[in-house]
């Protein structure tokens, strides 16, 4: 939109909308893009941040997926017995069976 030298209206609208968005950012402590997208803006630079890996310790209670054929329950409760690798664990279920499971 072009503005003539004697018409100041578009400039005032632009300034007031900028002032409103700045006040919203200060009130909610979020950036405009985060308020618009309702979350964090994901950019290629996010890929360079370290990923947090879940970690369990022996004795932790967990739910593990039951992959056996004919199983009526999809998830079983159990306890971590030991850590086998970076992402693999040995689990003892409540019924006494021993499973090896990946963290995901």
Plain-language structure description:
The mean pLDDT is 77. This protein has two helices and four strands; from the N terminus they run ααββββ. It is an alpha+beta fold and 104 residues long. The chain has a four-stranded antiparallel sheet with strand order 1-2-3-4, with no helix packed on it. It is 25% helix and 24% strand.
Counting helices, strands and paired strands, the structural category is alpha+beta
Counting DSSP H or I runs of 4 or more residues, the number of helices is 2
Strand order of the largest sheet: 1-2-3-4
State the major sheet. 4 strands, antiparallel
- The succession of helices and strands, N to C, reads HHEEEE
Proportion of residues in helical segments: 25-40%
**What is the typical, i.e. mean, pLDDT?**
77
- Seen as an oligomer or otherwise, the chain set is single chain
Summary of the model, kept short:
This protein is α+β, with helices and mostly antiparallel strands and 104 residues long. The protein is built from 2 helices and 4 strands, in the order ααββββ.
Key features of this structure:
single chain; alpha+beta; 2 helices; 4 strands; 25% helix; elongated
């Amino acid at each position: 939109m072009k503005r003539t030298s004697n018409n100041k209206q578009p400039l005032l609208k632009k300034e007031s909308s900028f002032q409103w968005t700045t006040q919203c950012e200060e009130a909610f402590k979020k950036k405009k893009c985060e308020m618009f997208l309702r979350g964090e803006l994901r950019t290629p630079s996010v890929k360079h941040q370290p990923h947090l890996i879940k970690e369990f310790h022996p004795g932790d209670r967990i739910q593990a997926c039951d992959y056996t054929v004919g199983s009526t329950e999809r998830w079983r409760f159990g306890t971590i017995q030991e850590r086998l690798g970076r992402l693999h664990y040995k689990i003892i279920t409540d019924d006494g069976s021993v499973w090896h499971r990946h963290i995901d």
